[in-house]
Design a protein that fits this description.
This protein has helices at about 45-50, 75-80, 100-105, 115-130, 145-160, 175-190, 205-210, 230-240, 300-310, 330-335, 345-350, 355-360, 380-390, 410-420, 440-455, 465-470, 495-500; strands at about 5-15, 20-30, 35-40, 60-65, 70, 85, 165-170, 195-200, 210-215, 220-225, 260-270, 275-285, 290-295, 315-320, 325, 340, 370, 375, 425-430, 460, 475-480, 485-490. With about 525 residues, the chain is α/β, with parallel strands linked by helices.
């Protein structure tokens, strides 16, 4: 008799130094279902999926495909069984083109060993068109946005004709419109008979698209429930082990003097000849959260690069606390009073080969507290790291000496936020600060950002999460094709109107006096 389940993972145990990531977990996936895997950062979700994809070997447990026990020693075994995975941290080669990344490892060659690139290009373009995953297949990966890289990963999996699809945090970097499209694509996959394992922290998505949910907490399986029989509050309680405040609560902002002033800022694009940011002006005041909202790829990344010094602006002026920092280095901008939580935590947020404690003092190691006559005071570094780890609940196998690369994405993000918020700088530039975080951590970060605002900090927030934009911000600036097309008060607008501005269907004329 054929098995009801296309995949069964029975009593899986996976250990790392100092931590049991998966502790006797059983997970069963039915054919044609969308099965969500929910849990806090570091709960063991990605580890469990990495076991299924052959990246890790479990210490105990078995895996069955269609009722037959199988051995998955590496990703090639997984691919042969029809299992594909879109990873949370993309497995792409920056200097290769999008097309080369998609076909890498699955190349079609002719009799003489030459690549059949024309056929590959045709197949990729057809998949891209069919599933609405539009990408520039000739662009280099290093030149495209994080959202575009996500699409490349999905196309990579589709190119291999997999029928069991693992999505590890697939929506963490997508816009609301792209998320809706992806949900529809996933439903389409399920209708075609593909089976989907979907790791996410976003309860709205689970309720919208999944058939069943398995909840993990601290490496253990808390239970599996039918989505139609549960609700967001119940799931968040299962996941965190306590009631979580899902609504953002904050007092009225009391903005004071201008901390950051941007005048006529223009930043060139690395992808095309046009400017990515076109002469924009705005300011951020002490005691307010100003949010830059927009669909990914409309200049947010380049704007932040121009402000923080990661890219050179071609025109305009940036003033921080009365000082012109338009041509200052990244370090000088940091020392002038700017904290930066970057969009890409691996490229710009962490030194992955360093330990957690080394990463936590990257901005402070030069201060007298942490060095004497040029020598690092390691006891002070350890003490400081322990304090931040405790305060921000950064979980890792070996505490402060854990290598950053080995930590879960959410805990890497918590480490960056802890480091940047603890610096007590007058301006906080926070780009996607809650990307990849669970509801408990998001609640904590939101409270922290509001507390920083109430202490008199100026916060410039860039977020693709509409709930976060509406709930956290005191003012919303909408960016469309490199221009600010609207300045909105979240109390006087709604998600629908915001969406119209983001898509370019609506526009305000902003005079210089509004800035």
């Amino acid at each position: 008799m054929a098995s009801e389940y296309v995949i069964e993972m029975n009593h899986i145990r996976k250990e790392f130094p100092g931590i049991v990531a998966n502790d006797d977990i059983t997970l069963q996936l039915k054919k044609g279902e969308i099965h969500a895997l929910l849990g806090e950062n570091g709960a063991g979700k990605s580890t469990l999926m990495s076991v299924l994809f052959g990246l890790y070997q479990p210490e105990a447990g078995t895996i069955k495909k269609d009722g037959v026990e199988v051995e998955i020693n590496n990703p090639n075994d997984a691919t042969a069984l029809g299992i594909g995975m879109v990873h949370q941290h993309f497995k792409l080669i920056d200097v290769f083109s999008v097309l080369d990344n998609i076909i890498l490892g699955a190349e079609t060659v002719g009799k003489l060993g030459f690549l059949k690139k024309k056929e590959a290009r045709k197949k990729v373009l057809e998949l891209s068109e069919k599933y609405g995953l539009k990408v520039d297949i000739d662009a280099k990966v290093e030149d495209i946005t994080v959202g575009m890289q996500q699409r490349v990963e999905i196309l990579k999996m589709l190119y291999r004709d997999n029928d069991i699809l693992i999505f590890d945090e697939p929506t963490a970097v997508l816009t609301p419109q792209e998320i809706d499209e992806l949900m529809e694509i996933m439903r389409g996959f399920a209708r075609e008979g593909k089976s989907i394992l979907f790791i996410t922290h976003k309860l709205n998505e689970i309720m919208a698209v999944s058939d069943r949910v398995t909840v993990l907490r601290k490496g253990k399986c808390i239970g599996t429930v039918n989505t139609k029989d549960t609700n967001k509050q119940e799931l968040s309680n299962m996941m965190v082990g306590r009631p979580v405040q899902l609504e953002i609560k904050k007092d009225e902002a009391k903005p004071e003097n201008v901390i950051l002033k941007v005048e006529g800022l223009t930043v060139p694009s690395k992808i095309h000849k046009n400017d990515a940011v076109k002469g924009i002006s705005f300011d951020v005041r002490k005691g307010e959260i100003v949010c830059i909202a927009g669909i990914d790829g409309n200049g947010q990344t380049e704007l932040i690069y121009g402000l923080t010094g990661l890219e050179k602006a071609s025109a305009g002026k940036v003033t921080l606390c009365g000082h012109d920092i338009s041509h200052a280095s990244i370090r000088k901008r940091s020392e002038a009073g700017m904290s930066h939580i970057p969009e890409d935590r691996h490229k710009h947020g962490l030194v992955l080969a360093y330990t957690l404690e080394q990463n936590l003092v990257l901005q402070k190691y030069k201060e007298p507290q942490f060095q004497k006559h040029g020598f690092i005071r390691f006891d002070e570094v350890r003490k400081y790291a322990d304090k931040l780890i405790e305060e921000y609940d950064v979980r890792s196998g070996q505490g402060p000496v854990t290598v950053a690369r080995s930590m879960s994405g959410g805990n890497q993000q918590k480490a960056i936020i802890a480091r940047e918020l603890d610096r007590e700088e007058p301006l906080i530039v926070a780009v996607q600060p809650t990307r990849g975080l669970d509801v408990g951590a998001i609640e904590h970060i939101h409270k922290q950002l509001i507390a920083e605002r109430d202490k008199g900090k100026a916060v410039l927030l860039v977020s693709l999460e509409l709930d976060e934009v509406m709930g956290l911000s005191d003012r919303i600036l909408v960016l469309y094709e490199g221009e600010i097309v609207g300045e909105l008060n979240p109390k006087e607008t709604d998600v629908q109107e915001l969406g119209l501005y983001m898509s370019g269907a609506k526009r305000q004329e902003r005079g210089a006096e509004e800035c």
